[in-house]
Amino acid sequence: MQLRCSYCQTMFAISRDEMLSALQYVTEEDLLYYDAHCPKCRRANRVERAKLQRAYPNWQEVLKEKAKEAAKTEKEAAKALKQEQSAAEAASASPEASELQAKTKKTVKKA
Ligand SMILES: [Zn+2]
Predict the structure, then answer these.
(1) C-alpha 45 to ligand 1 mean position (Å)
(2) Distance 2 CA to ligand 1 centre (A)
(3) Range of the domain at 36
(4) Considering the entire predicted model, what is its pTM?
(5) Cα of 48 to ligand 1 centre, how many Å?
(6) Are residues 11 and 33 in the same domain?
(7) Ligand 1 centre and the CA of 41: distance in Å?
(8) Model confidence over 72-97: pLDDT tens digits?
(9) Which helix (H) or strand (E) element contains residue 45?
(10) Which of 42, 48, 52, 67 is most buried, judged by most C-beta within 10 A?
(11) Does 40 share its domain with 64?
Protein backbone atom coordinates (compact mmCIF):
# COMPACT_ATOMS: atom_id res chain seq x y z
CA MET A 1 0.00 0.00 0.00
CA GLN A 2 1.46 3.34 -1.08
CA LEU A 3 1.25 6.34 1.23
CA ARG A 4 2.42 9.90 1.04
CA CYS A 5 3.69 11.52 4.19
CA SER A 6 1.53 14.55 4.90
CA TYR A 7 4.45 16.35 6.56
CA CYS A 8 7.37 15.90 4.16
CA GLN A 9 5.53 14.49 1.11
CA THR A 10 7.71 11.39 0.99
CA MET A 11 6.13 8.42 -0.72
CA PHE A 12 6.45 5.21 1.24
CA ALA A 13 4.90 1.77 1.21
CA ILE A 14 3.39 -0.46 3.86
CA SER A 15 3.96 -4.16 3.32
CA ARG A 16 1.16 -6.74 3.44
CA ASP A 17 2.52 -8.03 6.73
CA GLU A 18 2.50 -4.57 8.23
CA MET A 19 -1.04 -4.00 6.98
CA LEU A 20 -2.08 -7.28 8.53
CA SER A 21 -0.68 -6.39 11.94
CA ALA A 22 -2.08 -2.87 11.58
CA LEU A 23 -5.56 -4.22 10.87
CA GLN A 24 -5.27 -6.66 13.75
CA TYR A 25 -4.17 -3.83 16.03
CA VAL A 26 -6.89 -1.32 15.11
CA THR A 27 -9.53 -4.03 15.38
CA GLU A 28 -8.36 -5.22 18.79
CA GLU A 29 -8.01 -1.69 20.13
CA ASP A 30 -11.11 -0.53 18.28
CA LEU A 31 -9.31 2.40 16.68
CA LEU A 32 -10.37 4.38 13.63
CA TYR A 33 -6.84 5.07 12.47
CA TYR A 34 -3.53 3.34 12.20
CA ASP A 35 -0.38 5.39 12.66
CA ALA A 36 2.01 4.70 9.82
CA HIS A 37 5.39 6.21 10.53
CA CYS A 38 7.16 8.00 7.74
CA PRO A 39 10.62 6.48 7.11
CA LYS A 40 12.08 9.92 6.45
CA CYS A 41 10.71 12.26 9.12
CA ARG A 42 9.40 9.54 11.48
CA ARG A 43 6.11 11.36 12.00
CA ALA A 44 2.90 9.41 12.31
CA ASN A 45 0.54 9.52 9.37
CA ARG A 46 -3.01 8.52 10.07
CA VAL A 47 -4.36 5.79 7.86
CA GLU A 48 -8.07 5.17 8.10
CA ARG A 49 -9.06 1.70 9.22
CA ALA A 50 -11.61 1.57 6.39
CA LYS A 51 -8.87 2.40 3.90
CA LEU A 52 -6.73 -0.43 5.21
CA GLN A 53 -9.66 -2.81 5.01
CA ARG A 54 -10.39 -1.78 1.44
CA ALA A 55 -6.76 -2.35 0.48
CA TYR A 56 -6.68 -5.75 2.18
CA PRO A 57 -10.25 -7.13 2.07
CA ASN A 58 -9.42 -10.75 2.96
CA TRP A 59 -7.08 -9.93 5.84
CA GLN A 60 -9.20 -11.82 8.37
CA GLU A 61 -8.98 -15.01 6.32
CA VAL A 62 -5.23 -14.57 5.92
CA LEU A 63 -4.88 -13.98 9.64
CA LYS A 64 -6.91 -17.10 10.42
CA GLU A 65 -4.76 -19.16 8.04
CA LYS A 66 -1.62 -17.86 9.70
CA ALA A 67 -2.96 -18.65 13.17
CA LYS A 68 -3.94 -22.13 12.00
CA GLU A 69 -0.48 -22.76 10.60
CA ALA A 70 1.17 -21.54 13.78
CA ALA A 71 -1.07 -23.78 15.88
CA LYS A 72 -0.31 -26.73 13.63
CA THR A 73 3.43 -26.22 13.94
CA GLU A 74 3.08 -25.94 17.72
CA LYS A 75 0.97 -29.09 17.86
CA GLU A 76 3.46 -31.05 15.78
CA ALA A 77 6.32 -29.90 17.96
CA ALA A 78 4.40 -30.94 21.08
CA LYS A 79 3.59 -34.31 19.49
CA ALA A 80 7.23 -34.95 18.62
CA LEU A 81 8.25 -34.08 22.15
CA LYS A 82 5.60 -36.41 23.58
CA GLN A 83 6.78 -39.26 21.38
CA GLU A 84 10.33 -38.74 22.52
CA GLN A 85 9.24 -38.68 26.14
CA SER A 86 7.12 -41.80 25.88
CA ALA A 87 9.94 -43.64 24.12
CA ALA A 88 12.30 -42.73 26.93
CA GLU A 89 9.67 -43.72 29.50
CA ALA A 90 9.07 -47.08 27.83
CA ALA A 91 12.79 -47.78 27.82
CA SER A 92 13.19 -47.00 31.51
CA ALA A 93 9.88 -48.52 32.61
CA SER A 94 10.46 -51.95 31.15
CA PRO A 95 13.84 -53.52 31.93
CA GLU A 96 13.23 -56.11 29.24
CA ALA A 97 13.03 -53.45 26.62
CA SER A 98 16.25 -51.82 27.73
CA GLU A 99 17.91 -55.23 27.97
CA LEU A 100 16.78 -55.97 24.48
CA GLN A 101 18.10 -52.62 23.39
CA ALA A 102 21.45 -53.35 25.06
CA LYS A 103 21.59 -56.73 23.37
CA THR A 104 20.82 -55.15 20.03
CA LYS A 105 23.57 -52.64 20.63
CA LYS A 106 26.05 -55.41 21.46
CA THR A 107 25.08 -57.30 18.35
CA VAL A 108 25.57 -54.17 16.33
CA LYS A 109 28.99 -53.63 17.91
CA LYS A 110 30.05 -57.20 17.14
CA ALA A 111 28.94 -56.91 13.55
ZN1 LIG B 1 7.59 12.36 6.40
Answers:
(1) 8
(2) 13
(3) 2-57
(4) 0.66
(5) 17
(6) yes
(7) 4
(8) 999 999 999 999 999 999 888 766 65
(9) strand 44-48
(10) 52
(11) no
